Amino acid sequence: MSLEKILSIAGKPGLYKLTTQTRSGFLAESLVDGKKISVSGRHNVSLLSEIAIYTLTEELPLREVFLKIFEKENGGDAINHKVSKDELEEYFFGILPDYDEDRVYASDIKKVVQWYNLLIKNGITDFSEEEEEEGESKVAKAIEAAKVTGQKPGTVKSSTPKASSSKKGGGSKNTAARKT
To answer: Regarding predicted confidence, which is higher, 147 or 151?
Structure first.
């Protein structure tokens, strides 16, 4: 599995694997404890494949940062994310010497290291760039559309208001057509 179906959900710890789309959002499975949760369009969701790290010259996709860590650690775990700020920064500087220290905070480095270790623990080691599969691109587009429009993924927003009809009262209240 690649990073195309791995999510970070704001306010929820760890990472999640996208499992299926529902009418009101989608279902995701936690990589930490395996619990499934329902995620609506109101949640702030980020696909790991869309996240990048600032460097002095460009924005480097997160998958490339993971690949550099993977190569340095020979496929093993990185340092613990709970070490001191200085140790985290020193480790990250060894991985990515030209990262932008003004825009990449210690909390960001901690999250990257924690995510990397979680992915390795769950056997997700494919950090190469993949061609988008049709199903995966549809899900990513549905998530993005739900964020932008504030509506449920897979629904179409009508541009004309719906006329409401009342079954009580029986008739129209159009007074212009009545004879007096």
So the answer is: 147
